[in-house]
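assembly run, all chains below
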Amino acid sequence: MLLKLTGGRIIDPAHDVNDVVRDIYIRDGRIVEKPTDGRVDEEIDVSGKVIMAGAIDMHTHIGGGKVNIARTMLPEDHAEAVYERTELLRSGTGHAAPSTLTTGYRYAEMGYTAGFEPAVLPINARQAHMEMHDTPIIDKGGYVMLGSDDFLLRMMAANSDQEAINNYVAWTINHAQAVGLKVVNPGGISAFKFNQRKLDLDEKNDFYGVTPRDILHRLSRAVQEIGVPHPLHVHGCNLGVPGNMQTTLDTIQGAEGVPMHLTHIQFHSYGTEGDFKFSSGAAEIAEAINKHKNITVDVGQILFGQTVTASGDNMRQFAGAPHAHPNKWVCMDIECEAGCGVVPFKYKDQSYVNALQWMIGLETFLMVDDPWRIFLTTDHPNGAPFTSYPHLIKLLMDKSFRNDMLSTLHPEAQKATHLASLDREYSLYEIAIMTRAGAAKLVGLADRGHLGIGAAADITVYTDNSDREKMFEKPDYVFKDGEMVVRQGQVIKITWGTTHVVKPEYDVSIEKPLQQYFDKFHTLKMSNFKISNDEIVDDGRGSLTIQPLHKGGRL
Amino acid sequence: MIKEINATTRSNGLPIGGKEGDTTVNAVASWQSGYPMRTTFNRRFPDYDPFLNDSKRILANDESDLLIWVSSFNTAVTPPQSSANTIVLGRSGMQFETEPEVYIPVGVPGIDHEGRTFRSDSVVSVPLRKLRDSGLPSVFEVLSAVEQAL
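ok done. output:
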């Protein structure tokens, strides 16, 4: 079966193609060359339509313990967003923390064909995969979290060599079935167990004597040396703390040229100036990002309304708990290996702090020059639910819309920002970089995020509309692996995406100390910790896609 | 109390509960529908009400005419007495005080077929492996076959 999409305006930044009219041919789920005999089985006229690869959300909390806690905690959120079952779709609920089926449908309807869960706790990885397995249509994958686990901290306290740490990282990525490595409040989640309430970049964990800087250094090197394409995914120290911009600048400097992805940078770009002792550090942070080519960021934009914050950073989530809205929250020290904190939150446009957070996020988007190194996220659901992406795209692409919104916010906050003077408007090409080509490159997906010959036929077709929110919330067609799954913004077919992983090599000698460690300290056998390939495939609905490592990857 | 103690020092509770697969059902129901157990789908969407949807209460008040009882771990976990027609998907070897209208013997996850289960802490899940070839179907296989036949 050969399908032809005829006459679309192709935007494919991976191949430097910007708004070029070209036909696309699809066979067996892949984009193929024009057939030599010119025969096609089906043709869809998409002339005048904007064609991009399917969008990729490189940081979205869609699976795992904390997400399920958020769901359980918010029956009132679900009651406002209830979805009936249809002949095709299963029922579901949820706005801030939607059920898995609803999550897959909503992403697909917006033209997204992949989402990556950024906080897979090793001990809870099986649950994260089970939830993602029940998320239809989109591809998925996870970044597994280390950095406050006792095995690593013990190794570091004992000054183990880098090769041993590389081995442990590679082993964990393999057996948690991950596509990358994440660190959250490096060492801070552990420090919180010893009753430390903050941990700055050069502050020592009371028990292990290890600093966040050491941990970032060791883990970022490990990721680079074992050849994992996605750089170490860093949720830095001091999230949400006024003045944390200095920590962030020090972190960027401290990376010493090693690739590092700083996530939800908005929450880490705060100064202490002004009457409210809370100011924007976006200009300095953006300047540092522009200067340091090894650094990538996603923004974690906040948008106004009710949501829920769910994070592995229980040290900071505990500190934020008094702001819970509604007033309920959960913090956990999961198996003493990692943490979890779930705090519902309502961002208010008439709050000085929230209004400024909104401005800081947008300032960052507009002041970072290179769209290949900045990514469009709301840190779903922490800054806002992912369903608000079309609105966010409009804010980036339409200056007058942005400034109209700005003029309604807390007046003192307006005085504290230069946002109104930033003239930049993102182009469709730049949006395609951030949400497709750049995201695929960052995560390390060789066959996604582009429209070249051989790519997976994940394709979104939009009607050009100067109202970018309308354009991006309801694509004409979405194809997933060559099958039309969405028509006129409605899901018409259910498919099940693949799980992207990497399989860096490791030396099995690491299992000797790990076996002892599991036997002595864990409540789970090491053999049960490991998630087999068969578990991902499960009843045949799931599949595993092993992405290539960077060349030069070694133990 | 634990929350208050944490204002100055560290304190933890370990909530433990659930058996015979309860914890797993609760977790899966929460991610698939947004709600834990005691959720009805009568109105074509998930509707959570822990009082109205208490199955013991529903049976005692004769509010249902059909009970489907799934119990694949323990032969002693049998359906309660009720006037509802009863279909049991139960572990092979189950004995009944009152014979149900339909009984389909099923295998045990972790003995007769693979599966996964949450521990009673609701955080860690473990793989269940197939240890013998009994020929007994899993609950999933039975339900899938019924769905196919419909």
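Chain A is about 35% helix and 20% strand.

Chain A touches chain B through 47 residues (CB under 8 Å).

not gonna interpret more than that til we talk
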